[in-house]
Write a structure and sequence with these properties.
The protein is α/β, with parallel strands linked by helices and 399 residues long. It folds into 2 domains: 165 residues, Rossmann fold, CATH 3.40.50.1260; 200 residues, Phosphoglycerate kinase, N-terminal domain (Rossmann fold). It is built from 14 helices and 17 strands. The strands form 4 sheets. Strands 5-6-4-1-7-8 form a 6-stranded parallel β-sheet, sandwiched between helices. Helix 7 links the parallel strand 9 and strand 10. The two termini are 12 Å apart.
């Protein structure tokens, strides 16, 4: 992994202005945030800089205003939530550059925090306009990126600023990059990857990258049906991308050549209708799925065998559920395998890294979100990292 500068590399920051990119794109209901995980994530960085006497200016986006101002998408909406998590009053600044920002910096005392308005109100943000980045950079002494979830975007506030100011990774970004390096960059082998979810088409690049990097590829979710169909299994009414069976076969061939074992379920949970606890539900071998049945989860024997695979591994990367986990009892396989991974992690034999929206929800549902070594809340950025792509926001910190 290329080295990047962290807050440990900063000298005396008293009275200096820190431009800190954070993710404050919070889910809202009735004017307040329903989940402040993203603010909790950046709290250590923001408070550390404030405690050291810097004037901290927070840069963030909120929604998708596409370069226009909308009062409903101002970051002032999340100001109260941010203040509550940080335990400090913050000053709202309705611009990102110019005289208003200059005056506000003059009013802020050392250790104070300001929240700039939505960077996406300006078309220069998503266009990564160098002049726009330069305009924002003019107010800062150094730049800190603590928004891994936006690191796959080459925008002015996530990538452009690093070309105009000394750039550092914040504490959340640093933790994320170290965890990802331990998972795929420089992992302890053998490595297992669990890839689930509905469609192969959305995870093609992930699968193609992983077969060359891991020793065990465990495929679950609707995606597994496409692979089973490619192997000649009749999957009945199951969700399946029949037009991608050639692609699935190609991925399995690549895995063979790379010495990676692909694990597909050999017993499954099926039902005639997709509903909670349907009367038609039964467990059967994959070769016994009737034409009017659909596969909705991985069966108990396969889950036990997969648990045994994890016991032989030192590293696990997880993205996507094993079955239709939002509907009981089709959450059984996901919960069981997640609990096994959590127990192995707690026992010290496994480094487990998981990420992606559905995955975080599934691990929380299984009650083991806090037992994994690291759970990334980044959706798109985590997927692109699993695809082996360079993330612009990270690359800019190592330049």
């Amino acid at each position: 992994m290329s080295s990047f500068r962290t807050l440990d590399d900063l000298g005396d920051v008293t009275g200096k202005v820190a431009l800190v990119r954070v993710d404050l794109n919070l889910p809202m209901k009735d004017g307040s945030a329903t989940d402040v995980t993203r603010v909790e994530a950046v709290k250590p960085t923001v408070l550390e800089l404030a405690d050291k006497g810097a004037k901290v200016l927070l840069l963030a986006h909120f929604g998708r205003p596409k370069g226009k101002r909308y009062s409903t998408m101002s970051t002032s909406f999340v100001q109260g939530d941010v203040e509550e998590v940080l335990g400090k009053e913050i000053m709202f600044i309705p611009e990102v550059m110019g005289p208003v920002v200059e005056q506000s910096i003059g009013i802020l005392r050392n250790g104070d925090i300001g929240l700039l308005d939505n960077v996406r109100f300006w078309p220069g943000e998503e266009a990564n306009d160098p002049e726009f980045a330069k305009g924002m950079a003019a107010h800062g002494d150094f730049y800190v990126n603590d928004a891994f979830s936006a690191a796959h975007r080459a925008h002015a506030s996530t990538e452009g600023l690093a070309h105009h100011l000394p750039a550092y990774a914040g504490r959340a970004m640093e933790a994320e990059l170290k965890a990802l390096d331990a998972a795929l960059g420089n992992p302890e082998q053998p490595v297992a990857a669990v890839v689930g979810g509905a469609k192969v088409s959305t995870k093609l690049d992930v699968l193609e990258n992983l077969v060359g990097k891991v020793q065990h590829l465990i495929i679950g979710g609707g995606m597994a049906n496409t692979f089973l169909a490619a192997r000649g299994v009749d999957v009945g009414k199951s969700l399946c991308e029949h037009d991608l069976t050639d692609t699935a076969n190609r991925i399995m061939d690549q895995a063979d050549h790379a010495g990676c074992t692909v694990h597909l379920p050999y017993d499954v949970v099926v039902a005639k209708e997709f509903a909670a606890n349907p009367p038609s539900m039964r467990i059967c071998n994959v070769h016994e799925v009737a034409s009017d049945e659909m596969i909705l989860d991985v069966g108990p024997q396969a889950v036990e065998a997969l648990g045994d695979v994890l016991k032989t591994c030192r590293t696990l990367v997880w993205n996507g559920p094993m079955g239709a986990f939002e509907t009981e009892p089709f959450d059984t396989a996901t919960v069981a395998l997640a609990k096994t991974a959590a127990a192995l992690t707690e026992g010290g034999s496994l480094t487990s890294v998981a990420g992606g929206g559905d995955t975080v929800a599934a691990l929380a549902h299984a009650g083991v979100k806090d037992d994994f070594t690291f759970v990334s809340t980044a959706g798109g950025a985590f997927l692109e990292w699993m695809e082996g792509k360079a993330l612009p926001g990270v690359a800019a910190l190592t330049a």
